[in-house]
Every structure is written in structure tokens, then in C-alpha cells.
Amino acid sequence: MTPALKIALGSLVIGVVVLGLKTLAWYVTGSVALFSDALESIVNVATAIAALFAVRIAAVPADERHPYGHHKAEFFSAVLEGVLIVVAALIILHEAWGAVLAPRALDAPLSGLLINAFATLINFAWCRILLSRGRALKSPALVADGHHLFADVLTSAGVAIGILLALTTGWWLLDPLMAVIVALNILWSGWKIIRASLSGLLDEAVPEEVLARIQAVIATEASGAVQAHDLRTRHAGAVTFIDFHLIVPGEKTVAEAHDICDTVEAALMAAVPDANITIHVEPEHKAKRAAIDIPEG
Questions:
Q1: Domain 3-201, what fold?
Q2: Per the UniProt record, which residue ranges are transmembrane (predicted)?
Q3: Percentage of the chain modeled with pLDDT above 90
């Protein structure tokens, strides 16, 4: 079992535990805001299942039908998570509107808050693990799950504050109003996850700092070549795809050109872990003005 798969499985277990605690908190209080928090935990469990399958599929090696691997499966999981978050937010808004029209006092609010606080602490600890390990493993599904859990922690804290204010002031309308705020925050979180995932599905180029690193490696390590041009990059899960044309002097033999490519590939692999590199060697008359110039050395 891969490290990413173990973490995805852990997310499912944590999600089920937290869902049980938050459902209990809602049951003992009847709070619409706590109901919204519990509903978001149902989404957490659903997305943890989706992430588990996505991480497992992404780990499958390349085959004849998928020569570039299965890494994009994780982006589909993240998009699904975003869609489920949006659906949950709409359900919360529906429930909150009914409570706004007829607000009522809560049952055992302090007990419910304590239960919910314990669930929130579990979520906070786990979201930190998801974000740190997801980034280290370059897993979009785990990072998306971590961001969602962090949003859940923030909304849980907001819910607690709203209920405490309602208890102190007697304004029970604050309970459904807090649920509305939670729903709007969830909507924003879902949109951010969908937007980030779509960039991967649409083969967006690597960030500027990574691109600059790639260009610097080519310029310094391709000694013996003239220039490199038509550099293209994209990312899919943990893998960064890099391809470009390398111009070599006409008198170079195939073996010499191949040695230059090997040197550049090794340097790129060290600078950009899990890179998939394709280099197309061309003669001098194929040189272009827009290119990475390689100093003579």
C-alpha cells in the first residue's frame, strides 16, 4: 500500500468518526447550525471515499491504453469533491431558511458544543497531516481533502461562536443565520477546489517558479548544445511532464547528442522530482529566435 493510499484510507476512518460525533451534537441540540456542520461531514466521508479510489487508480502504472499513466484520476476526485461541497451548501441554505422563518431555543446546547468541539479538534489535527503529506506526495486529491477539512474547522468554530452568542443574548435567530454563513463559506471552498482541479484537467503549465527552474537547468546542463526551444510543461498528479526541442551542432554524432540529453534529463529529474521528460534533438538550421540559449562550455 502506497503512502498516499494509507493517508486516503485514514481520511475515511477519521471522516466516519467525526460524522458520528457531529451528528450526535446536532441530535442533542436540534441546532440548524450544527446540522449544517454534520451535513458537511457527510460530504467529507463521501469525498474521502472518492479520494481513496482516485489515489489507488493514480498509482496504477502506465499501460498500452494509458501510456502516460493514470495520474489525472486524482483531479476527477477533487472536482467531485467540489461539486459535493456545493450540493451540501445548497441543502444547508434550504434548512436554514426554514429556521429563519421560525427560530426556536436549543436543547442542551453546551453538551452539543463540547461534542462538536472534540470533533473539530480531530479534524484540525488530520487536516494538517493531509496538507503536509499531500503536498509532499504531490497528491491533488489529498491536498483538496485537506483544504476542505480546514474549511470545516473554520466553519465549526464559527458555529460554536454563533451558538454561544445565541445563548448569551437569547437571539435564537443567530443559529440559522450562522448556518447561512457556513453554507456561503462552503460554497466558496467548493468553487476554489473545482477551479484548482480544472487547471490540472486542462493541462495547465507548471507555476512560474518551477518553469524558471527548468529553464535554468537546461541552460546550465546542456553543454555542447546550441539552444532549446518550444519548451512545454504540464502536471498530472505527482508527475510533471516536460518536453522541448534541443538544437545541437550538425557535426555532433547521435551518441554525443544522446549523451547531452542524458545529462539534461538527470539534472531535470534532480530539480523536478517525478518528471517525465521528452527531448527532441534537431540540427542547427532548426534554431529559433525565442529560445533558451546555452552558453558555450
A1: Alpha-lytic protease prodomain-like (1.20.1510)
A2: 7-29, 41-61, 73-93, 113-131, 151-171
A3: 24
| Same fold: 3-201 with 208-293 | no
Name 235's bridge partners: 240
The amino acid at residue 228 is A
* 130 residue type, one letter: L
Residues 190-201: b if buried by 16+ CB within 10 A, e if exposed:
bebbbebbeebe
Where in the chain are the domains? 3-201, 208-293
**What is the torsional sign of CA 40, 44, 45, 46?**
positive
Confidence (pTM)? 0.57
8-state DSSP, 285: G
What is the tens place of the pLDDT at every residue in 29-48?
888 778 777 877 777 787 77
CATH superfamily assigned to domain 208-293? Cation efflux protein, cytoplasmic domain (3.30.70.1350)
| H-assigned helices in the chain | 3-29, 32-58, 73-101, 109-136, 140-169, 174-201, 208-221, 254-271
- Report the distance separating Cα 207 and Cα 209, nearest Å: 6
Determine contact, residues 217/264, Cβ cutoff 8 Å.
Answer: yes
The answer to whether residue 216 scores a pLDDT higher than 80 is: yes
